Amino acid sequence: MTLELPAANTIIDNADCLHTEQEVIAAIERMAARITDAMSSSNPIVYTIMNGGLIVSGHLLPKLRFPLECSYLHASRYRHETSGGQINWLVPPRDDMKGRTILIIDDILDEGHTLAAVIEDCLKRGAKEVKVAVLVDKKHDRKAPGVTADFVGLEVEDRFLFGCGMDYQGYWRNTLCIYAVKGL
Ligand SMILES: O=P(O)(O)OC[C@H]1O[C@H](OP(=O)(O)OP(=O)(O)O)[C@H](O)[C@@H]1O
Ligand code: HPA
Question: Start and end of every Phosphoribosyltransferase domain (predicted)?
Answer without folding.
Answer: 17-168
